[in-house]
Design goal:
- The complex is a heterodimer of chains A (195) and B (442).
- Chain A is an alpha/beta fold.
- Chain A is built from six helices and six strands, in the order αβαβαβαβααββ.
- Chain A has a six-stranded mixed β-sheet, with helices on both faces.
- In chain A, helix 5 runs antiparallel to helix 6.
- Chain B contains 14 helices and 16 strands.
- Chain B has a five-stranded antiparallel β-sheet.
- Chain B is globular, with a radius of gyration of 20 Å.
- With 442 residues, chain B is of the alpha+beta class.
- The longest helix of chain B is centred in the middle third of the chain and has 19 residues.
- Chains A and B meet through helix 1 and helix 6 of A and strand 9 and strand 16 of B.
Chain lengths: 195, 442
């Protein structure tokens, strides 16, 4: 069911916004074939993609590819997706290790391994999936602006603090190469019509 | 004693086009209906939800249900009662086993357990149940039971803090948000009335409202202002007029229940503070800070409905300020589609001044803001509504520094740039198709 997860059990905003963006990327492609490599993100996935797909699917969403089975899953997605279909991948980046809410998560994401996103991107291309869009969520600029906002609050400058927070939200999502310094990646790829 | 002294609500004279505006707004609201309820993007001070566009079972239902019930009461037209019941049925169908309503997060959607949103849904359900019961109409019980389930499982089960003696904002911690607590108190009052059980009111609603009073400034230039929130003993001294207005209905319920004058006095002071912030054009600052500074942007339009409604509720208690400029601003904000625009100056929220073109978020009609205008205007309706429809709307706007053309019809909302669609919400669909510049939660 859309919106089933209680607000007090949501994953960090980084993942929520990346999944929203994935859903918006796939909105006109019908229900996606969905895979999730992280138990703690399954609820977030289900509350956004509530309808089952028909296979072969016109689109797919893959949350947190796991280093133990990501190549196998990539093959499976390649088979399940029609030519011209879209794949949206939401993957942690190395800096996601710093998120306190994420400590204790059971997954072993390929994305947090140094060079993991690069390997993923290469494997996509090798599998006939051409990346179209890549963004990073929770940018260094947003982190800096939130830090400045906290300082402004401590200094009693509440108006400035609120404006810095608003600026931080606008700076939250970035493109490459800065995306490498974010916590979560979103890659949208298309299955080439001739692999 | 402060109490209802007279029933003159005519200080802000009804404007001749209220029914026409209401009819157009109602027609536009109909276009937002998808599977299971009213959907659409959200623009807000804290965050946007431009991508999730599915049904939202949040505070939009408070104004929609109450607005339709008021229309029925004022016109006798059973179509409006049927629409109020249909909205109530949306809430019944979307309630989960844990008592939460799906997608009750508003700007945080998709998520459930939204505050004050689930309490506002309870208010809607209980108002519907009470009206149906009092009119000897069948089928009121499921609405009452759904609200009771949410109140017991969530508001009293998870948010009630015995140590604080109030309904807090989250299941853990000590965050207290007066306006949200007031919405919860309203729901508890209604449940107490429906079940003829004063214990709900005595044990939960009144203590919560006493804590709200402790957040109100007495004396000085901020007299009547209510601090936005607090963490334990620490109050966050920011004053947000539209949220202060949302405290008024619950404070008046406490006045009616107890007969104690200080509740109405608090409500009058709260609205007095708001009225002093209003400029001659009817615009309110979004936030007033304790150093006297303020952020004017975004300057709300559709949300003014809650301020104007609070003013109407307080007329019998002696509130006499002319609010007609705010009403004119609300009506002037109506788009050709029938939606009332959300605000003015969103682009200047991080600083500076608004540019010549409106921000996308300014123009956007948002169900959870327009419901407030809808409920207020329904309360001003004096004759049957004329026929109306959602007309096509095209306007130039900016978003994140780039220019777009916004086009809205009864079927879709689209933003294009250079002749290419960059954002498209096919009404009724749970997600908008959006290019990356619309992904930010900004």
């Amino acid at each position: 069911m859309y919106g089933a997860l209680p607000g007090y059990r949501l994953a960090p905003l980084d993942y929520g916004l990346a999944l929203d963006a994935a859903a918006a990327s796939l909105a006109e492609y019908g229900p996606p074939y969905a895979l999730c490599g992280c138990r703690e993100l399954i609820g977030e996935l289900h509350q956004r993609f509530a309808q089952p797909p028909t296979l072969p699917a016109r689109c797919a969403v893959w949350v947190e590819p796991d280093e133990r089975d990501w190549l196998h899953n990539l093959d499976q997605i390649g088979v399940s997706l029609v030519r011209g279909g879209l794949l949206a991948i939401v993957a942690s980046r190395p800096l996601a290790r710093l998120l306190p809410e994420r400590r204790g998560w059971s997954a072993r994401p390929i994305g947090v391994v140094p060079g993991g996103i690069l390997r993923l991107r290469s494997a996509l291309k090798a599998g006939g999936l051409r990346p179209l869009i890549e963004r990073g969520f929770h940018s260094p600029a947003a982190i800096a602006l939130v830090g400045l906002s906290r300082l402004a609050t401590a200094a009693g400058q509440d108006a400035r603090a609120d404006r810095l927070r608003a600026a931080a939200r606008m700076a939250y999502i970035v493109t490459r190469p800065t995306a490498a310094l974010t916590t979560v990646a979103l890659i949208v790829a298309t299955k080439e019509t001739s692999a | 004693m402060i109490g209802p002294q007279h029933s003159d609500v005519g200080i802000d004279r009804p404007q001749p086009d209220v029914e026409a505006a209401l009819a157009r707004l109602q027609a536009w609201l109909e276009t937002l209906r998808g599977r299971g309820g009213y959907g659409g993007p959200v623009a807000h001070w804290w965050r946007q939800s431009l991508l999730y566009t599915g049904r939202g079972l949040d505070w939009r239902y408070e104004g929609i249900v109450d607005g339709y019930l008021t229309l029925w009461e004022r016109t006798g037209d059973l179509r409006w009662l049927a629409k109020a019941r249909r909205a109530g049925d949306d809430l019944l169908a979307g309630q989960m086993q844990n008592g939460h309503f799906a997608a009750s997060g508003f700007e945080n959607n998709p998520s459930s357990a939204g505050t004050p949103h689930e309490a506002a849904c309870d208010v809607a359900l209980l108002r519907l149940a009470l009206v149906l019961r009092d009119d000897a109409k069948a089928g009121w019980q499921p609405y009452a039971e759904a609200a009771e389930c949410n109140i017991h499982a969530f508001i009293l089960g998870k948010l009630w803090d015995a140590g604080m003696g109030a309904v807090r904002d989250e299941p853990v911690g000590a965050t207290f948000v007066p306006n949200k607590a007031c919405t919860a108190a309203e729901a508890i009052f209604l449940l107490g009335e429906l079940r003829a059980d004063a214990e709900y009111i005595e044990r939960y609603a009144l203590p919560t409202l006493r804590r709200v009073l402790s957040y109100q400034i007495r004396g000085g230039i901020f007299d009547g202002a209510i601090a936005q929130n607090g963490f334990g003993a620490r109050r966050v001294e920011k004053y947000l007029p539209i949220y202060i207005a949302r405290c008024v209905p619950a404070l008046l319920r406490a006045n009616t229940y107890t007969g104690e004058a200080h509740w109405a006095d608090a409500a009058l002071r709260a609205l007095g503070f708001i009225a002093r912030q209003m400029c001659p054009q009817g615009r309110l600052p979004t936030v007033v800070y304790p150093d006297g500074s303020s952020n004017l942007w975004p300057a709300w339009v559709a949300p003014l409905g809650d301020v104007l409604r609070a003013a109407d509720l307080l007329r019998p208690y002696g509130f006499a300020t002319d609010m007609s400029a705010a009403m004119a601003r609300l009506l002037a904000g109506q788009r050709p589609s029938g939606a009332i625009c959300t605000a003015e100056g969103f682009a200047a929220q991080p600083g500076g001044r608004p540019g010549q073109l409106p921000d996308l978020r300014d123009l956007l009609g948002v169900a959870g803001w327009c419901d407030k205008a809808f409920r207020y205007l329904a309360g001003r309706c004096t004759s049957p509504l004329p026929a109306a429809m959602c007309a096509a709307d095209d306007a130039a706007c900016i978003f994140r520094g780039r220019g777009y053309t916004l086009s809205e019809t009864s079927e879709r909302l689209e933003l294009s740039r250079g002749g290419r669609a960059r954002y498209r919400w096919v009404k009724g669909q749970p997600w908008a198709a959006a290019a990356p510049e619309f992904w930010a939660g900004g």
